TrEMBL record:
Record's bilayer topology term: Multi-pass membrane protein
Gene Ontology MF terms in the entry: transmembrane transporter activity
Record key words, sorted: Membrane, Transmembrane, Transmembrane helix
Compositional bias ranges of the Low complexity kind: 210-220
Transmembrane segments: 17-38, 58-80, 87-111, 117-136, 145-166, 178-198, 250-274, 286-303, 315-335, 341-361, 381-408
Lineage of origin: Eukaryota, Fungi, Dikarya, Ascomycota, Pezizomycotina
Subcellular location as annotated: Membrane
InterPro entries hit by this protein: MFS (IPR011701), MFS_dom (IPR020846), MFS_trans_sf (IPR036259), Proton-linked_MCT (IPR050327)
Pfam families with a match to the protein in the record: MFS_1 (PF07690)
Domain of life: Eukaryota
Protein name: MFS monocarboxylate transporter
């Protein structure tokens, strides 16, 4: 008796996989979701603690966080493939908590930049990418939907954190320091759940099926072959040749380049929609909720495309999302009233979708592929401008995404 192939990824939905999705959802709730609410900090710092600084100066705090979140993604991706997610999540949790509690003590601009920018960005990188890689491996047949749910945590987080921070910062009995400590204690309980639930899928031997046998054959020397299942990652499974092959993949290059260009302007509305509304004469209490509207609409725009991508092709859905986000961004500054801002926020939140790198590399390279993919986006952050810039970068990026899609399949209506 012999077996062809050793380990397989589970095709059925296990309780470990479901728990990993839950943990990933909560991880992005506290990382990307928290960053999506930075517009609240932007408005608060401008009017109180850092009122001597310009909008551009303050935006660098959030920009540095996002820059480092993506910059450390390649390291995180390779480490999760080699050592697993557990210690990365523990280290990221401790670092993020330290950054939040240190931010509560900050008084000077450079202190905010170091605590809320540098330390928080590095720490959150080790919390963001491991759950996504684990979920992609745990649910290979429902990968798009599963990752859509995980990324949806950032949308829910953006809504919850924006509303909660706006309320707490406006509460006269609470100082800024205690607001941040409350945030830290909330994150502490959530991170405990994340570290306990995000686990690599169990490796198991497949059920053998007869090979070259007939109903009349007998004997103990029958040959067996495994059922066709995708291989599961091993800690030693990622070699240098795998990494270089991924880098030289023209589809990977076009997709990464397209989404890198698109991400040049992607976060502009998240950072400045509240301040823009205030300049139009809308009171700050109402303008804070525009951030929640963007994030709330993006929940549907992230989970929905994940499900549709499994049916109609992830590249097709990704291309549609990037292009429509660019068209919507061109219209941002055309909104001059509260109703217009609410409408444009909802549409932009819905259209700003997710990435589809999961279909380029196999399951064995999932962590490395996601890490490299996000790492290439790092140098594109930190340059915030106007809505025309946002629209131009997103539409321009969609051209390269379309090129990547056509390299895979030139049939336009084919699900890719």
């Amino acid at each position: 008796m012999e077996f062809q192939g050793a380990m397989v990824a589970p095709r059925r939905v296990t309780h470990h996989a479901v728990l990993s999705v839950l943990g990933g959802f909560l991880a992005l709730f506290c990382t990307v979701g928290y960053l999506n609410a930075f517009g609240v900090f932007q408005q608060h710092y401008t009017s109180s603690i850092l009122q001597d600084k310009t909008q551009s100066d303050i935006s660098w705090i959030g920009s540095v966080t996002i820059f480092l979140l993506y910059l450390f993604a390649p390291i995180t991706g390779i480490l999760v493939d080699r050592v697993g997610p557990r210690w990365l999540l523990v280290g990221g949790s401790l670092g993020t908590l330290l950054s939040v509690f240190m931010t509560s003590l900050c008084m000077q601009y450079y202190q905010f930049l170091l605590a809320q920018g540098v330390l928080q960005g590095i720490s959150m990188s080790f919390l963001t990418w491991p759950p996504m890689a684990v979920v992609a491996r745990s649910l290979p047949t429902h990968r798009g939907l599963a990752l859509g749910i995980v990324v949806g945590g950032s949308s829910v987080g953006g809504v919850v954190w924006a509303v909660m921070l706006a309320r707490l910062l406006d509460y006269n009995s609470l100082s800024f320091g205690w607001v941040m400590r409350i945030v830290g204690f909330i994150m502490l309980s959530i991170f405990a759940i994340v570290c306990l639930t995000v686990r690599e899928p169990r490796q198991h031997m497949p059920t053998p099926t007869p090979k070259n046998s007939s109903p009349n054959s007998t004997g103990s020397e029958s040959e067996f072959s495994t059922q066709d299942s995708p291989p599961i990652a091993t800690k030693e499974g990622v070699s240098k040749s795998d990494v270089f092959a991924l880098i030289k993949n023209p589809v990977f290059i076009c997709l990464t380049g397209g989404l890198a260009i698109g991400n040049l302007g992607l976060f502009i509305p998240f950072f400045f929609i509240s301040s823009y509304a205030t300049k139009l004469g809308i009171d700050s209490q109402t303008s804070f909720y525009l951030i929640s509207i963007i994030n709330g609409a993006s929940l549907i725009g992230r989970v929905g495309p994940g499900y549709l991508g499994d049916r109609f092709g992830h590249y097709n859905i990704c291309l549609l999302a990037v292009f429509s986000s660019g068209i919507t961004a061109f219209c941002l500054t055309a909104a001059q009233s509260l109703g217009g801002l609410i409408a444009i926020s909802a549409v932009y939140g819905f259209t700003s979708g997710g990435a589809c790198v999961a279909r380029i590399a196999g399951i064995r390279m999932q962590g490395t592929a996601m890490g490299m993919f996000m790492g290439f986006l790092a140098p594109t952050y930190g340059y915030l401008s106007v809505s025309l810039f946002t629209g131009a970068t997103l539409v321009g990026g969609s051209v390269l995404v379309a090129t990547a899609r056509l390299l895979l399949n030139r049939i336009v209506l084919s699900p890719v």
